[in-house]
Every structure is written in C-alpha cells, then in structure tokens.
Specification:
Helix content is 45%, strand content 10%. The chain is α/β, with parallel strands linked by helices. 26% of the residues are buried. About 3% of the residues have low confidence. The structure holds adenosine-5'-triphosphate and magnesium ion.
C-alpha cells in the first residue's frame, strides 16, 4: 500500500492541509466518503501527522454478538463463563493514541451509548468491573453512509452523531477528481517491483470511466492487469470488461452524435468554423505517435513498438523513413 495521501487535485490538496491542521487537536473527527475513497488512508495520515500512542483500527461491523462489549472495553476476571483472565479492550489499547472506528454506521446501538459516554467523560467500565478506567483517546470515525439519514431512521443515535460531527472531512469520489488518476496509476504501478507502462488507450478509458468503487477499484483494476499481462505493457484489452464497455459506449455515443451531425434532416449541420480543414495527414500522425512513444519509453524501441502496436522492424523502417533521430 503506498503510504501518504496521493493526489494533486485542488480538493485533495485542501484536504491534506486540513488533515495536518486537525491532527494537532483532540476533538473527534468524522471522515465521510463513498466506498474506496480513502477514508482509512486519511485516518492514518491524520495519525501520522501527529503520531502519539497507537493507531487502533476498530471494525464496527465485526462488533456483534455477546462478546462485542468486551472486545471494545475489556472484561474483568471471572466476569462471565470462560473469562479466566482479565482482558484489555481495544479502547484501552488506544490509550494515548487514536481509536479508528471504521464504518461507525454499523456500530450496534448499545455500543453507541457507551462510546458517547467515553467521549463525554473520558472513562469507561470494563465488562463485569465496578472500576472506571480513564482513557485519553482521540476518536476518528469513518463511514460511507449518510449518518443524517441513519439518525432519522433510528439506527444511529443523534447525540453521538452531533458529538462526532464537529470536525468533519468529506472525501470526494474519484470521478470528481479525475486529474488524480494518472498520479495514482503511477504510484500503484511503482509498487509492483518492475516497470509497467499503461497503454495510452487504456489510460484514456480510465479517464473516461466513472469509478463507482473509487480508488479501491482503480487499484484492483491495475492489480488484475499486472497479474494477467505477460509484459511491461498493460494494453487496453486487459482492462476489466466494465471499463472496456464504458469506453465503447462512450465512443458509440460520439459516433452517434457525429452521424446525427451528417444527417440531412439535422437542422444544425456541422461546419468548419474557420474554413480550414481539420484533417491531419496520416504521416504526420504517425510521426507524432512514434515521437511520443519513444519519449515515454525513454528511447526503449522494443516497448515503444509494443505501445504503437507494430513490430520492432516496422518501427526501425519508419524511423528511417521519417529520418527521425532518437537519442537513447
Ligand atoms: N489518496 C490516496 N493515495 C493513495 N492510495 C489511496 C488513496 N486513497 C485510497 N487509496 C488506496 O485505495 C484503497 C482504498 O482506500 P481505503 O481503504 O482507505 O478506502 P475506504 O474509503 O476506507 O474504503 P471502504 O469504504 O471500501 O472501506 C486502498 O488500497 C488505499 O491504499
Ligand atoms: Mg475502509
């Protein structure tokens, strides 16, 4: 997992600055965002900006059943059958540090009351214990749910919501910050131990796609392409079908618009605004494509040929034909 909170879009730059600032305080933090937008990455970078104690992740969805309270707050010796030893809970483990309540929307109502008490009084009681334990814990909570709605539906306590909602960070979905895609791709590809290059067409399709699973989906997509490919080049056809279909649907829409433009019944036929032809000679397109491929591969002709979808010999012939001199 790449460390740090990657992104150069204005919203991410702003969020990064905000996280740095919030990290100095003590109030609870609520991180909102669709699935896969980086809520855990944001929580960890908040902790890393001011690391004290431990970062203790608590998966609220797994806190179910008779032992859930003991998981969170620990239990005293002999407090229930089988409790032969006293046990510390996650809250105590996070003492002096951060307790990260992941998917807080899934926290059972009984535990929501108890968490609220910790936030108000900074102390709790372990299961079966009469003693109160003081804790100094910073609570960071995250959810992909709309907590206002959960409150209205009676699934989330309003008092806890208000307590958590003071400092709020909302992560934008990837489709609203597509300029971060190339940077994320670059970071992820750099973690695979060898050099990979994403074909232009594949990158175009990625930029067009809407990424409902956000960064997690982007990462999974690259993982799969790297796994199934057999060379350094990750071509368009290795993309997941969902993305290929999305790109094709987009192209069909563009073609349909173009066709409509040529329809004699179309009252708005296309015209060349400046009267000049927009057609570029094929030889010029070829020359540019070759130049770009060699630039991108830092002169590696084998990979450049793969990127261009031609054989190495053809590339050599064209280099000669266009009298292109390449510094390697
Ligand atoms: N800004 C980022 N920079 C680098 N990697 C990121 C960034 N945001 C997310 N990731 C990566 O995307 C994946 C999903 O991130 P994370 O688990 O933090 O998302 P989440 O919002 O908690 O998702 P979920 O709701 O599915 O739990 C992880 O592999 C994480 O490393
Ligand atoms: Mg998560």
């Amino acid at each position: 997992m790449p460390t740090g909170f990657v992104g150069r879009s204005p919203r991410i730059v702003q969020i990064r600055a905000r996280i740095e600032q919030i990290a100095q305080g003590k109030t609870p933090v609520l991180i909102l965002g669709e699935s896969g937008t980086g809520k855990e990455v944001a929580a960890r970078s908040l902790y890393n900006a001011n690391p004290r104690g431990q970062f203790v992740p608590i998966d609220c969805g797994s806190l179910v059943g008779p032992l859930m309270e003991s998981e969170l707050f620990g239990h005293a010796r002999h407090s229930f059958t089988g409790a032969n030893e006293a046990k510390k809970g996650l809250m105590e483990l996070a003492h002096g540090g951060v307790a990260f309540f992941d998917e807080i929307g899934d926290l059972p109502l009984e535990l929501q009351v108890k968490l609220l008490r910790v936030l108000q009084e900074h102390e709790f009681r372990a299961v079966g214990s009469l003693q109160r334990t003081r804790v100094d814990v910073r609570v960071i909570a995250a959810t992909h749910r709309n907590l206002e709605k959960e409150v209205k539906a009676g699934r989330f306590r309003e008092d806890l919501f208000h307590r958590l909602n003071v400092t709020r960070v909302t992560l934008p979905p990837l489709r609203e910050r597509k300029e971060d895609i190339p940077l994320l791709v670059e970071r992820f590809l750099a973690t695979y131990g060898r050099r990979y290059i994403l074909a232009h067409e594949a990158m175009d399709a990625m930029m067009a796609y809407d990424w409902p699973g956000n960064i997690r989906e982007l990462k999974n997509c690259l993982d799969r392409m790297v796994d199934s490919g057999d060379g350094p080049l990750l071509p368009f056809m290795e993309l997941p079908t969902s993305i290929i279909n999305f790109a094709r649907a987009g192209r069909t829409a563009i073609a349909a618009t173009a066709a409509a433009a040529h329809d004699p019944m179309n009252p708005f036929p296309p015209g060349l605004a400046d009267g000049a032809s927009k057609v570029v000679p094929l030889s010029e397109l070829e020359r540019r494509a070759i130049g770009e491929a060699l630039l991108e591969t830092k002169g590696d002709r084998t990979i450049a040929a793969q990127l261009l979808g031609i054989g190495r010999t053809t590339l050599y012939r064209k280099l000669k034909e266009y009298q292109m001199v390449v510094e390697v």
